[in-house]
């Protein structure tokens, strides 16, 4: 019998603890597939976050460091500066990357640190049970915005790709989604490109993945998937925000 | 050959001698010379100097570099060390070796920029969350700034316990003769646990501090505690001066001990049998030094009394008095001498 679809070798056999319909499963798989295709599992160090992906060290087969909340880009910097020939990526959620770790995120990008950042944006703190995130949409109900996020008292959502693309340091910044097969294929391409930029150019790359969180959105997996397209993508437009190759070619 | 160096610079030079791969720093008085020295000299030695965006980032960069198996360090002064406590707790929880330098200034809050010893509790009792310890060194001279840095790297690697050099603004800023050709030997240890890319390894290495099962976390903590108990038995380190026949023993560390020594000499010249115990390591605390027959101890600190608590515990009921200055004020030789005389007269010694 011919195998036409299988688990990436860079992903372990451990059962994921993620909820049905959660975007982390897709995102992990994309990173795993890219590690397999580039043959880099043996030379990669992953830095994983605090949040729902806190146990990702059990899921990635490469060497892994578990960082404190928001500090993954600093930890990744420490690793990469010692091991410039290895592949280093951080995998972070929105609270981790865009709230408590905003400084680390911005300055790793400013330095053009030779790392890849995989950013999971699901507009909510998942692990702690669904509180308002820096990316929570205006009007979105969460535990800590029970009447809907009021931007005038609770702030406006951070658009990280847009913010980081104003900087000179990053080489490649793209936002993708995980709601449809076409979007997932595009996301895979982006993740691979991000790792390739690191490997070939020693450059900083950043891929944001819009993901569903059915449990904390109070939706079925299907409804949550649909919300990514109907509410998130209009606010967080997909696309490439910065690509030094295009800039060099004058595109 | 001996040369004149600032304490902070001697420490930095000794770290480079020790083979430090990375220094991650952030400017704060009175330790900034360490970062400046590293910026100039570490890249030439094949290492990495990086000025981080914050103290928090700097200590987390140390976590990454140490987790990858390299000798890494950061330095700061009191308010900055408070910021690093999160990272220090994680580093201790992951059993990573590294060296953290605190050139103490007065607190709390912004406090002042003059020398102090008021971070003793933070350094030896665990300034971050959780059950953990640091190997804490207390240099009292520029030479010790250098020597203890080498020893700190060696012992931290050997024990997989993060080390702290607990210095102060005077010892960091003052210049003394130092012999950089006669530093302790460098000891290297294998780090098969490092997360540095699997290479040929079958199993991946994980640097982690998360244990969601309480039974598992308790077992990890208990195992670490056994290591701490071994360290207490093996690593206590102190210096004694004129203690053989001493009835009053002054005890102090770092720059306070230098001043206290002069007061002991003055007391001796007045016929009082005074001596000095100077802890060279503050954790493990040299409790064995205080198991002796003595009329009284006088603990001298540039704080409102922190080490004195450990002296009282170690002294087992012996009389323990305290004299301290704070806010960036130095302890005073005459005031120490007067306290020695008061104790001497009250005790009919």
Question: Can you offer a commentary on this structure?
Answer:
The complex is a heterodimer of chains A (251) and B (349). Chain A has 251 residues and is α/β, with parallel strands linked by helices. Chain A has a single domain (23-248), classed as Rossmann fold. Chain A contains ten helices and nine strands. In chain A, the strands form two sheets. In chain A, strands 2-1-3-4-8-7-9 form a seven-stranded mixed β-sheet, sandwiched between helices. Chain A is globular. Chain B has two domains: 2-235, Rossmann fold (3-Layer(aba) Sandwich); 239-346, 3-Layer(aba) Sandwich (Rossmann fold). Helix content of chain B is 40%, strand content 20%. The model of chain B has no long low-confidence stretch (mean pLDDT 97). The A-B interface holds A 41-45, 47, 54-55, 57, 60-68, 71, 74-83, 86-87, 103-104, 106-107 and B 21-22, 24, 48, 50, 52-54, 56-58, 60-70, 72, 86-87, 90, 94, 195-200, 204-210. Strand 2 (63-66) of chain A pairs parallel with strand 9 (206-207) of chain B, so a sheet runs across the interface.
Largest sheet of chain B: 7 strands, mixed
Helix- and strand-based class of chain A?
Answer: alpha/beta
Fraction of residues in helix of chain A:
25-40%
The arrangement of helices and strands of chain A along the chain is HEEHEHHEEEHHEHEHHEH
In CATH, what is the class of the largest domain in chain B?
Alpha Beta
What's the CATH superfamily of the largest domain in chain B, by name?
Answer: Thiamin diphosphate (ThDP)-binding fold, Pyr/PP domains
Domain count of chain B, please report it.
2
**Shape call of chain B:** globular
CATH topology tier name of the largest domain in chain B: Rossmann fold
Distance between the termini of chain B: 46 Å
Keywords:
heterodimer, A: 251 residues, alpha/beta, Rossmann fold, seven-stranded mixed beta sheet, two-stranded antiparallel sheet, 10 helices, 9 strands, 39% helix, B: 349 residues, 2 domains, five-stranded mixed beta sheet, 11 helices, 40% helix, globular
């Amino acid at each position: 019998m011919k195998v036409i679809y299988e688990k990436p070798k860079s992903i372990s056999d451990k059962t994921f603890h993620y909820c049905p319909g959660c975007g982390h499963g897709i995102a992990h798989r994309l990173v795993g597939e890219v590690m397999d295709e580039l043959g880099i599992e043996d030379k990669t160090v992953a830095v994983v976050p605090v949040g729902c992906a806190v146990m990702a060290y059990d899921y990635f087969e490469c060497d892994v460091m578990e960082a404190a909340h928001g500090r993954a880009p600093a930890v990744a910097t420490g690793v990469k500066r010692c091991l410039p020939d290895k592949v280093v990526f951080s995998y972070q959620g929105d609270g981790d990357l865009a709230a408590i770790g905003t400084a680390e995120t911005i300055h790793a990008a400013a330095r053009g640190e030779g790392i890849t950042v995989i950013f999971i944006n699901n507009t909510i703190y998942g692990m702690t049970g669904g509180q308002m995130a820096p990316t929570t949409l205006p009007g979105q109900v969460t535990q800590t915005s029970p009447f809907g996020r009021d931007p005038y008292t609770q702030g406006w959502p951070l658009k990280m790709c847009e913010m980081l693309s104003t900087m000179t340091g990053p080489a490649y910044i793209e936002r993708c989604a995980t709601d449809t097969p076409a979007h997932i294929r595009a996301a895979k391409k982006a993740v691979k490109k991000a790792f390739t930029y690191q490997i070939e150019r020693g450059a900083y790359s950043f891929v944001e993945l819009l993901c569903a969180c059915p449990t904390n959105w109070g939706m079925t997996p299907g409804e949550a998937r649909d919300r990514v397209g109907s509410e998130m993508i209009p606010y967080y437009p997909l696309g490439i925000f910065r690509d030094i190759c295009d800039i060099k070619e004058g595109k | 050959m001996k040369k004149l160096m600032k304490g902070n610079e001697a420490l930095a030079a000794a770290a480079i001698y020790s083979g430090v791969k990375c220094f991650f720093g952030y400017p704060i008085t009175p330790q900034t010379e360490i970062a400046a020295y590293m910026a100039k000299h570490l890249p030439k030695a094949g290492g990495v100097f990086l000025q981080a965006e914050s103290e928090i980032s700097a200590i987390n960069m140390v976590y990454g570099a140490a987790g990858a198996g390299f000798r890494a360090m950061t330095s700061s002064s009191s308010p900055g060390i408070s910021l690093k406590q999160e990272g220090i707790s994680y580093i201790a929880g992951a059993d990573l070796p590294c060296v953290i330098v605190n050139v103490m200034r007065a607190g709390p809050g912004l406090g002042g920029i003059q020398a102090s010893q008021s971070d003793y509790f933070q350094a030896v009792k665990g300034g971050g969350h959780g059950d953990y310890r640091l190997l804490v060194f207390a240099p009292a001279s520029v030479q010790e700034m250098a020597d203890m840095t080498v020893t700190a790297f060696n012992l931290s690697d050997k024990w997989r316990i993060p080390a702290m050099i607990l210095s102060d603004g005077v010892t960091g800023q003052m210049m003394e003769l130092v012999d950089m050709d006669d530093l302790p030997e460098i000891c290297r240890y294998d780090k098969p646990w490092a997360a540095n890319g699997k290479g040929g390894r079958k199993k991946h290495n994980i640097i982690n501090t998360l244990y969601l099962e309480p039974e598992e976390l308790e077992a990890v903590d208990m195992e670490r505690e056994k290591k701490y108990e071994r360290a207490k038995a093996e690593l206590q380190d102190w210096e004694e001066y004129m203690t053989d026949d001493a009835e009053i023993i002054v005890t102090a560390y770092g720059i306070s001990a230098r001043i206290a020594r002069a007061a002991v000499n003055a007391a001796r010249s007045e016929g009082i049998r005074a001596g000095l115990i100077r802890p060279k390591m503050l954790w493990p605390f040299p409790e064995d030094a205080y198991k002796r027959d003595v009329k009284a101890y006088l603990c001298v600190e540039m704080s409102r009394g922190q080490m004195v608590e450990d002296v009282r515990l170690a002294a087992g009921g012996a009389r323990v008095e305290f004299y301290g200055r704070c806010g960036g004020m130095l302890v005073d030789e005459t005031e120490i001498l007067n306290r020695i005389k008061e104790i001497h007269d009250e005790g009919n010694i």
